[in-house]
Design goal:
Elements (H helix, E strand, L loop, with lengths): L2 H25 L2 E5 L2 E4 H9 L3 H7 L2 H23 L6 H24 L8 H10 L5 E2 L2 E10 L6 H19 L5 H8 L3 H4 L4 E6 L5 H8 L6 E6 L3 E11 L2 E2 L2 H31 L6 H8 L3
Antiparallel strand pairs: 1-2, 3-8, 4-5, 4-7, 6-7
Helix pairs in contact: 5-11, 6-11
Amino acid sequence: MNVRIIGWLLLSLLYIGSVCAQQGSAEDPVVGKMGSVEIKASEIRRIIDAQPPELRKQMTSAGELDRLIRNELLRQSLLMEAKSKGWDKKADVALMMERAKDQALLQLYVNNLARPPAEYPTEDEIRRVYDANKAALAVPAQFNVAQIFISSPENADRATAAAAQRKAMELAVKAKASGADFAKLARDNSEHADSAAKGGEMGWISAAQLSPEVRSALEKLDKGEVGGPIRTSSGWNIFKVQDKKASSTRPLSEAHDSIANQLRAHRAQEIERSYIEALISRTQPSVNQAEVAKLQNVK
């Protein structure tokens, strides 16, 4: 055959191979790269598909996928490094790897045995649990507040404490005056640097995070109202309530999936425990204590 024809055929085959490789890459694109390690979309799909159904939805958000890919890149990079240094060939490591493999198989097998029926729990069961646990699903009241803080530690001397109290009283009068610019007063006078820089803004705070004396004072204030000064262990606080939300109970629509997952997890534990108890009942394990005693003397 003519040499030119042979050369042309070889070039054609190389070109076709290149095109096929590019098409394969398009069908299974690289979604992450770290040095020489590449992660393809199919690998991530396999990881997600191997998870329990209740976890798959959580893993497919943009943030979770990004975290999964980064973790997998790091895992594979470290694994490659360990293998390049021969760690997989060490006897003790090989034993641990074999046991880890067995443990993974065992865990997957038991998880499958213990998986509750797909129809569990029913909507009625979820509703009953919701109704019985409304207290635990309570959302505390929340306050969107701004503050002016004057430091006055409990161990401060009398003169320093008196001066701090006087300053707090004077600022409270100014803050409560009609048309007062609370944000400016906070920027110019508050001794809490972070909030002072933002005009006293503290953002939304749950009632559960507040000390009893502060919570009690804020509950009495209406939206836009200023209260204080209030004495706390660290000093004096003057608060302005920007907005507030009354305490409430999470609706069933919000708590539904969480309750369902908890019920499924609890049922899976019950199924697993019952299965293991039945297995032990059928085939009682025995231990050769004489041989165990010999093992105790091994050094």
